[in-house]
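Postdoc handover notes: sequence design on the structure in folder B. Input tokens:
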């Protein structure tokens, strides 16, 4: 086979990989086909990597060492990381993608002369990749609730400093394009972009992290696409563009779900409202209940809605919830699950947990679908959710979450809230739902509380 024929075969292979990426992304849009979509995407990546390895003369021993080390680390993460820590893992993966793009573009710049278009792509890779990397590290720290990153960090005049850094990046890009052989300019650009990434993400509050993760995911894709232009690699351009575009769309959807503009997320800080005295006043009339009492309430309910939150993920209560639901369904109760777009700490967090417990897809109802009918719900069981059911978003225009669409469980006939304590959610504000006339608090671990309710139901 001639060299031209080989290049044609490789081009066809890259095209097939790109098609697999597109179909995989399409199928991941629905829980029923998500696993198949994920496998198609993985197959496309395997094909693309295989073609890249055989299409050029490479140092295979070093590549094999990298594959073994990287594959081992990936396998360890896949086996050990809990579902509750998946948002942090996604943040790290975004960062790894960004720094990989930076290093690849830097290597290409140092090993061979590049034309003007490639130099522009190299500069863009350095900027976007570096911002993604350090921004993702900060996002990881916030999601992990590390002490160093827990509180938003900002200082007077920070926006002016950010603007100055952005202008500096433009100047460095121009200088890099004019002096393509000067790799020092590239690494200086990377350092400045890293500082900008730190300053962009560090002021953002924890409540906005789901949006930030989606945006950083988009950045990592754009960095990969820019690297594709540096290397003249078609499949890298296509896959990076897909990730970048889907990340932007997801970011827009997340902002809409939180009633937040992207500008507000990037340049504002979601501070917690209310003092501890306010919380004491709000929670003065909180009524606690027991598993036996909840079982008696559920025994006569015709329609029950479960509202899952991050606390359910932490307690790994999804299987216990499913078993309780089966018991109620056997008694003729209509069971449904109300899913808020930003429940948990990343998009689709609750859907994945409930699918893991074999909850039927048709019982998972999005917020806009279930809200109009909540007044007919006999019992709503809120497990670990906080901000996404806080009526303050609807009633207090001065609240940090004012205008954020919520699941209106306060309109249900009875609300059972299962939480370890009255501690606030990511937005750090009290929730008056907990003290509402139609609400009862069942304090304790989410999984154990649901197991206790299930045992009590068996005795009713």
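Designed sequence:
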């Amino acid at each position: 086979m001639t060299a031209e024929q080989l290049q044609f075969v490789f081009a066809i292979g890259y095209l097939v990989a790109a098609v697999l990426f597109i179909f995989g992304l399409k199928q991941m849009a629905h829980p029923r086909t998500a696993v198949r979509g994920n496998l198609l995407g993985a197959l496309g990546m395997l094909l693309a990597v295989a073609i890249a390895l055989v299409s050029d003369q490479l140092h295979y021993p070093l590549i094999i060492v990298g594959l073994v080390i990287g594959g081992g680390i990936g396998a360890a993460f896949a086996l050990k990381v809990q579902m509750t820590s998946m948002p942090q893992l996604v943040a790290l993966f975004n960062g790894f993608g960004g720094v990989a793009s930076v290093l690849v573009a830097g290597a290409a710049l140092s090993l061979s002369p590049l034309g003007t278009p490639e130099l522009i792509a190299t500069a863009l890779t350095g900027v976007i990749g570096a911002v993604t990397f350090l921004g993702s590290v900060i996002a990881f720290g916030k999601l992990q609730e590390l002490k160093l990153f827990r509180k938003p960090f900002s200082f007077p005049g920070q926006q002016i400093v950010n603007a100055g850094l952005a202008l500096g990046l433009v100047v460095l890009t121009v200088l890099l394009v004019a002096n393509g052989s000067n790799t020092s300019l590239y690494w200086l650009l990377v350092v400045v972009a890293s500082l900008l990434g730190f300053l962009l993400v560090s002021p953002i509050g924890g409540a906005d992290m789901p949006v930030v993760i989606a945006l950083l995911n988009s950045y990592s894709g754009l960095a990969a696409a820019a690297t594709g232009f540096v290397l003249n690699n078609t499949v890298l351009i296509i896959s990076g563009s897909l990730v970048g575009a889907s990340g932007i769309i997801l970011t827009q959807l997340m902002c809409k779900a939180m009633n937040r503009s992207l500008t507000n997320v990037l340049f504002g800080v979601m501070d917690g409202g209310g003092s501890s005295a306010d919380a004491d006043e709000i929670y003065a009339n909180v009524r606690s209940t027991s598993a036996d009492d909840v079982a008696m309430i559920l025994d006569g309910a015709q329609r029950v809605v479960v509202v899952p939150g991050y606390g359910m993920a932490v307690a790994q209560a999804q299987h216990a919830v499913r078993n309780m639901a089966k018991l109620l369904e056997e008694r003729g109760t209509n069971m449904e699950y109300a899913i808020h777009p930003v429940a948990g700490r990343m998009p689709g967090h609750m859907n994945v947990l409930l699918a893991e417990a074999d909850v039927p897809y048709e019982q998972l109802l999005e917020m806009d679908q279930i809200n109009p009918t909540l007044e007919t719900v006999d019992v709503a069981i809120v497990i670990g959710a906080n901000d996404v059911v806080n009526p303050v978003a609807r009633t207090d225009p001065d609240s940090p979450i004012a205008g954020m669409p919520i699941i209106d469980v306060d309109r249900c006939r009875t609300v059972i809230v299962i939480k370890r304590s009255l501690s606030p959610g990511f937005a750090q504000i009290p929730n008056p739902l907990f003290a509402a006339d139609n609400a009862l608090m069942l304090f304790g671990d989410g999984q154990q509380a649901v197991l206790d309710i299930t045992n009590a139901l068996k005795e009713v």
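Context for whoever picks this up: Residues 116-143 form the longest helix (28 residues). Don't rerun without checking with the PI first.
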